Amino acid sequence: MMGLKESLLKYELQREIEAAKKLEKKEQYDKAIKHYTRAAAIYRRLAYNAPVEKAQTMFDRASRYENIVKYIRHRESVESLKEMSPSVQNEIIQSIIVSEKPETEWNEIGGLGEAKRTIKEAIILPFIESKPPFVKAQRTILLYGPPGTGKTLLAKAASNTLDATFFDARASSLLSKYFGESLKIIDFLFKKAKEMQPSVIFMDELDSLGVRRGADVSEATRRVVGQLLIEIDGFNTGREEKILIIAATNRPWELDEALISRFQKKIYVPLPDFEARRSIFKIHLSQAELKGVSFDKLAELTENFSGRDIANVCQEAVIRMVREENPELESLTSKQLEEYVLKYRPLVLDDFKRVIEEIEPSVKLEEIEKFEQWGKEGFFESKREEKEKLYERLADLERKKKSLEKAKEMIEKEFLQRTIEKDSFNKMLNEYEAQLIQIKAEIEEIKKELGKPPSD
Ligand SMILES: Nc1ncnc2c1ncn2[C@@H]1O[C@H](COP(=O)(O)OP(=O)(O)OP(=O)(O)O)[C@@H](O)[C@H]1O
Ligand SMILES: [Mg+2]
Q1: Which of 142, 238, 345, 376 is the most buried (most CB within 10 A)?
Q2: Residue 151 near ligand 1, beta carbon < 6 Å
């Protein structure tokens, strides 16, 4: 059972990592480095106190964050990867695409029965050697849904079930500042995944590759998406490899359609309903001492809360209780901390109520509607506006075409009756003809774009 001190450390750890990632995204590298370094230090501390079988993982994670720090420093100081020695290159690429063996179990994920079932089916098939050739496994899965609902957990549990190597390939880290690096990283990722089968490639934050056509995106992003499309295509059609690609996004409407269409399975990961909230509370409080706390009541009080919100409520309630019971904690030196015995009491409903009252659900209701809408529209919502414009333009062109044809017809009639000014009539006819050809070509173009059959 996890001690209180350990869970406090883990809580701190999570906060450090979250802060680091946020700062890194904002390109505040100096600050990000500080948080990553602290995270690494906490992992080392946890490792020293962990049972042997877990210690290795903890050390691995510590060095993972140390590597990220190294990478960020390098990124600051050198122009590009090309300038580094191959071994440094390798090390850096490895730190970008972290591989690990996650320990998340299915029963640590509350609710999401449908999503769990689908993923389990998808992951089991490729691993059954003996099956008829027409039974094809779906090995590319897109998880979409609001933040903090369990997408990453699902990917990790899948990886754990397969005892697979988990490649944490956040899309944002694939988007290296230097175009040459990105392609190298992607190439390395897929090669390594093949080498270390069974593997799960987890592409989190897929939306950072959001390149809806027409949007203003960099050439580098386009190339990265292009390369990914090629890799995934080869993978979808290729022979059975024990690799699963799971991508996650909380802004699916920003994704490129070509990219979305490559995923054989798209799974909605929604906010937890009453039952799911109940079980998420149970999961997160499985080790806590409670007195008179009803899970029904907790679920009732947290409508519209995400799994992450609920996890935060639980942690916050514990932390506040600890603070209350140990007012002297803050003033202790680290030497004293080592010997300190933490005082605590069971948690009561009021501890939770206080926290819940202060926490706003992190996901807005309008956002939920957007997700549901996007799912219903058959994933083409992202293109609707664009399509509507095309339809308008098409109607406009068809109208022009008709009137031009009519005008042409009239001129031709006139032309036959006339004996003088034939030349200028001829010129007019030619002009109309040229315009018609142009319009017809554009009509065909648009029809192709809209997936309609050509006119004749
Ligand atoms: N269904 C759930 N069951 C149990 N815990 C959950 C669930 N959903 C979220 N959590 C808690 O919230 C944390 C964040 O969940 P997770 O990382 O899976 O969210 P996510 O959907 O990947 O979010 P994001 O879109 O922000 O990446 C988990 O570590 C866990 O503590
Ligand atoms: Mg996630």
Answers
A1: 142
A2: yes
Distance CA 226, CA 187 (A): 12
Q: Which amino acid is at 39?
A: A
The total number of structural domains that make up the chain: 4
Do 140 and 201 form a contact (C-beta atoms < 8 A)? no
CB 153 near ligand 1, within 6 Å: yes
Q: Is the pLDDT of residue 426 over 50?
A: yes
Check which CATH number belongs to the domain holding 355 and give it: 1.10.8.60
What integer pLDDT is reported at residue 365 of this predicted model? 84
> Cα 262 from chain centroid?
15
- Distance between CA atoms of 277 and 302, rounded to whole angstroms? 8
Asked if 264 and 303 sit in the same domain, the reply is: no
Cβ atoms of 307 and 110 within 8 Å: the answer is: yes
Is the C-beta atom of 311 inside 6 A of ligand 1? yes
Say how many residues make up the chain. 456
Q: Is residue 67 part of a domain?
A: yes
Is residue 117 located within the same domain as residue 251? yes
- Give the structural domain span for 119: 98-269
Residue 255's pLDDT band (boundaries 50, 70, 90)?
confident
Q: Tell me the chain's radius of gyration from C-alpha atoms.
A: 29
Cis peptide before 198 (omega within 30 of 0): yes
Q: Is the pLDDT of residue 227 over 80?
A: yes
Are 245 and 328 within one domain? no
Residue 203 tokens, joined: 């592409």
In this structure, the answer to whether residues 131 and 236 fall within a common structural domain is yes
